[in-house]
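By way of example, what follows is a protein record of this kind.
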Amino acid sequence: MVKGEAVQTKFHYKSQDGEDFIVFVDDVETMKKWKEDSSIPMAHFISTFKIFVTHKQGTQGQLDGASKSTLENEFGTSIDEDVIKVILQKGTQETSQFPGRDGPKNDAQMGSIVNGQPGTR
Protein backbone atom coordinates (compact mmCIF):
# COMPACT_ATOMS: atom_id res chain seq x y z
CA MET A 1 0.00 0.00 0.00
CA VAL A 2 1.29 3.44 -0.89
CA LYS A 3 2.10 5.79 1.97
CA GLY A 4 -1.07 7.47 3.26
CA GLU A 5 -3.49 5.37 1.20
CA ALA A 6 -6.57 4.36 3.17
CA VAL A 7 -10.23 3.41 2.86
CA GLN A 8 -12.65 4.53 5.56
CA THR A 9 -16.15 3.11 5.95
CA LYS A 10 -18.75 4.64 8.22
CA PHE A 11 -22.41 4.03 8.85
CA HIS A 12 -24.68 7.04 9.21
CA TYR A 13 -28.03 7.00 10.99
CA LYS A 14 -30.20 10.12 10.94
CA SER A 15 -32.67 10.35 13.82
CA GLN A 16 -36.18 11.76 13.53
CA ASP A 17 -35.09 15.01 15.19
CA GLY A 18 -32.27 15.37 12.66
CA GLU A 19 -29.29 14.27 14.77
CA ASP A 20 -26.62 12.33 12.87
CA PHE A 21 -25.03 9.23 14.45
CA ILE A 22 -21.85 7.74 12.99
CA VAL A 23 -20.12 4.38 13.56
CA PHE A 24 -16.85 3.33 11.87
CA VAL A 25 -16.36 -0.13 10.35
CA ASP A 26 -12.99 -1.68 9.50
CA ASP A 27 -14.10 -4.82 7.65
CA VAL A 28 -17.27 -4.43 5.58
CA GLU A 29 -17.27 -8.03 4.31
CA THR A 30 -17.26 -9.44 7.86
CA MET A 31 -19.98 -6.96 8.83
CA LYS A 32 -22.15 -8.22 5.94
CA LYS A 33 -21.65 -11.79 7.22
CA TRP A 34 -22.61 -10.59 10.73
CA LYS A 35 -25.93 -9.27 9.38
CA GLU A 36 -26.78 -12.86 8.38
CA ASP A 37 -25.06 -14.57 11.32
CA SER A 38 -25.18 -12.52 14.52
CA SER A 39 -22.90 -15.01 16.29
CA ILE A 40 -19.92 -13.24 14.65
CA PRO A 41 -18.45 -10.87 17.27
CA MET A 42 -18.76 -7.20 16.32
CA ALA A 43 -15.18 -6.72 17.53
CA HIS A 44 -14.10 -8.45 14.29
CA PHE A 45 -15.30 -5.59 12.12
CA ILE A 46 -16.02 -2.50 14.26
CA SER A 47 -13.25 0.09 14.33
CA THR A 48 -14.07 1.38 17.81
CA PHE A 49 -17.06 0.81 20.06
CA LYS A 50 -17.83 4.51 20.11
CA ILE A 51 -20.84 6.27 18.65
CA PHE A 52 -20.24 9.73 17.24
CA VAL A 53 -22.65 12.60 16.63
CA THR A 54 -22.20 15.55 14.28
CA HIS A 55 -24.79 17.88 15.84
CA LYS A 56 -27.06 17.87 12.79
CA GLN A 57 -24.18 18.54 10.37
CA GLY A 58 -24.56 15.37 8.27
CA THR A 59 -21.80 12.86 7.70
CA GLN A 60 -19.14 15.53 7.19
CA GLY A 61 -19.65 17.47 10.42
CA GLN A 62 -17.26 17.55 13.35
CA LEU A 63 -17.38 14.25 15.23
CA ASP A 64 -18.10 14.27 18.96
CA GLY A 65 -18.76 11.30 21.20
CA ALA A 66 -22.48 10.76 21.77
CA SER A 67 -23.54 11.29 25.37
CA LYS A 68 -25.39 8.59 27.28
CA SER A 69 -28.47 10.83 27.52
CA THR A 70 -28.49 11.44 23.74
CA LEU A 71 -28.35 7.68 23.13
CA GLU A 72 -31.08 7.03 25.74
CA ASN A 73 -33.37 9.62 24.17
CA GLU A 74 -32.94 8.31 20.62
CA PHE A 75 -32.48 4.56 21.03
CA GLY A 76 -34.00 3.85 24.45
CA THR A 77 -30.66 2.53 25.67
CA SER A 78 -27.17 3.84 26.27
CA ILE A 79 -25.49 0.45 25.80
CA ASP A 80 -23.03 1.07 22.95
CA GLU A 81 -23.30 -2.42 21.47
CA ASP A 82 -27.11 -2.23 21.21
CA VAL A 83 -26.99 1.24 19.62
CA ILE A 84 -24.28 0.16 17.15
CA LYS A 85 -26.47 -2.77 16.05
CA VAL A 86 -29.32 -0.37 15.23
CA ILE A 87 -27.01 2.01 13.34
CA LEU A 88 -25.54 -0.85 11.28
CA GLN A 89 -28.95 -2.31 10.46
CA LYS A 90 -30.86 0.91 9.74
CA GLY A 91 -28.08 3.31 8.73
CA THR A 92 -26.51 4.00 5.36
CA GLN A 93 -22.96 3.06 4.40
CA GLU A 94 -20.50 5.70 3.24
CA THR A 95 -17.02 4.79 2.04
CA SER A 96 -14.24 7.29 1.48
CA GLN A 97 -10.94 6.54 -0.20
CA PHE A 98 -7.87 8.60 0.52
CA PRO A 99 -5.23 8.56 -2.23
CA GLY A 100 -1.66 7.63 -1.53
CA ARG A 101 1.26 10.01 -1.63
CA ASP A 102 4.42 9.42 -3.62
CA GLY A 103 7.66 11.30 -3.32
CA PRO A 104 11.00 11.20 -1.57
CA LYS A 105 11.06 8.73 1.28
CA ASN A 106 13.73 10.51 3.35
CA ASP A 107 13.87 14.25 2.74
CA ALA A 108 16.57 14.78 5.38
CA GLN A 109 18.99 12.56 3.50
CA MET A 110 18.26 14.03 0.08
CA GLY A 111 20.22 17.26 0.74
CA SER A 112 23.38 15.51 1.86
CA ILE A 113 23.82 13.30 -1.21
CA VAL A 114 25.53 15.04 -4.15
CA ASN A 115 26.75 13.12 -7.20
CA GLY A 116 26.20 9.84 -5.39
CA GLN A 117 28.66 10.81 -2.61
CA PRO A 118 26.99 11.04 0.82
CA GLY A 119 28.22 13.82 3.06
CA THR A 120 29.78 15.99 0.34
CA ARG A 121 28.34 19.24 -0.99
Q: What stands out?
A: DSSP finds four helices and seven strands in the chain. The first strand starts at residue 6 and ends at 14. The chain has a mean pLDDT of 82.
